[in-house]
Amino acid sequence: MPKGSPELANARKEEIISACKTLYREMSFKDITIKLIAEYTSFSRASIYNYFETKEEIFLAVLQKEYELWVADLEDITGSSERMTKDAVARALASSLEKRELLLKLMSMNHYDMEENSREERLVEFKVAYGASLKAVDRLLKKFCPEMSGEARQIFLYSFFPFVYGIYPYSVVTDKQKRAMERANVGFSFHSIYDLAYVCAVKLLEG
C-alpha cells in the first residue's frame, strides 16, 4: 500500500486496536500504555500518535468496534425470521450479549475514562456506533413486538441499556471478590451474562 494511503491508515488503526485488545485480555486498563501497545505493533510509538492521541482513544475505538459487531448480530437476528415470541426476542438479545463480553467489560469498567480523555471527534465516531445499537434493538422490537408503541419501545431501550452497563461485574467475579463476599456474609450466586440479560429483557417485554 502506498505511504499515507487510506488503506495504510486503516490497516494501522486496526493493528493498534488489535494490540490493545490483546493486552487487555491479560492486563488492567491502568497498566496499559501507548508505549506498551506500540511493542505489539509493527511500527513505532510515535506513529501511533498519528491516529490516536491517548490510550483512552484507542480503547474507545475498541469499544466502538464491539458495538459495531453487536449491531451486526442484532441485524442478523432481525432478518433471520418473520416472527418471534417475546421470549424468543429476550433469548436472542441475551445470546447476542453473551458473545460480547469485551463490550460489557469496557462499558462497565472504563467507559467514563475513555470518553473523558478522548477528543470530541473520536467521541462522535463512537456515539454513532452506540446510536446504531439503540436503533438496531428498536428495529428488532418493532418487527417482532408490533403491539409495542413507540413510547413502550423507548421505555424498553432506556431501561435495558443502563442495565446492560452493570452486567459484567455481576457475571465475572474473581476468587478474591468471592472470598470477600463470603466473609461479609453476602454469599455468592453465579449468574451468567446470558441469564442476567435474558431475565431483564423478558421482564421488560412482559411489562
Summarize the structure in words.
The longest helix has 26 residues, at 55-80. Helices cover 73% and strands 0% of the residues. With 207 residues, the chain is mainly α. It is globular, with a radius of gyration of 19 Å. The mean pLDDT is 94. It folds into 2 domains: 1-51, Orthogonal Bundle (Arc Repressor Mutant, subunit A); 56-206, Tetracycline Repressor, domain 2 (Orthogonal Bundle).
- Let me know the largest β-sheet: none
- Poorly predicted regions are none
Approximate strand percentage? under 5%
Radius of gyration: 19 Å
List the total number of helices: 12
Q: What gap, in angstroms, lies between the N and C termini?
A: 55 Å
In CATH terms, the superfamily of the largest domain is: Tetracycline Repressor, domain 2
Give the total of domains: 2
